[in-house]
UniProtKB/TrEMBL annotation:
Species whose genome carries this gene: Chengkuizengella axinellae
InterPro entries, sorted: Glyco_trans_2-like, Glycosyltransferase_2, Nucleotide-diphossugar_trans
Keywords: Glycosyltransferase, Magnesium, Transferase
Protein name from the UniProt record: Glucosyl-3-phosphoglycerate synthase
Cofactors required: Mg(2+)
Amino acid sequence: MQPSVSIIIPAWNEAFKISETLRSLHDLRDKEGIQKWNEFIVVDDGSEDHTYEMATPWADQIIKNPRNLGKGASLEAGWKRAKNDIVVFLDADLGGTAFLTYKLVEPILNGNKDMVIARFPKAQKKGGFGLVKKLAVQGIYMLCGYETTAPLSGQRALRKQLLQSVPSLSDGFGIEVGLTIDAVNKGFKICEVDVPYQHRETGRDWAGFTHRGKQFVSVSKTLYHKWRDPVC
């Protein structure tokens, strides 16, 4: 019998997209042969809009943080409440493409991988200059020897055993980098797969460059901490 799947969605001010994302996952739940997708958990991270209300009809559980605690704390709260052996982390803004998550989980259901990372299609509009991604790729390789092409992707399927074996999740934009380093250094098997998700993209404007600047700082801090305090 295939193991069951819990999907964790951290959300902060995602009222515009969260219900569409969850409806798409319900379509996946109804898909023939995938009846085991039986738990959708939303962690409302202190949203100031109607995220909670928009998620309520579609989520099996909603955890409401009293204030904005960050993505790491939200994912931590979500997976620790999950009842199933496979946990999937998804962003709230995937909309109708969330249905494609079955592609992300297949390598784990087949029994030979412990964590699967989604590779997105090429961005539809020009973003940054790749500095954050290059930093993450080189840092991950230096600290654990894994060659990645999607170091910043937050769409991941994992065995709960992996999450129980690594330290608490890093916060900020470095969370995915830290999780990859810890998983490889703990001996877990990981891979990347192409999944044609669509989500909100940042452009070459002030907001986009500010976002990528925060990413660069956060990833740098995570790499430093993983270098200073490696897991073994």
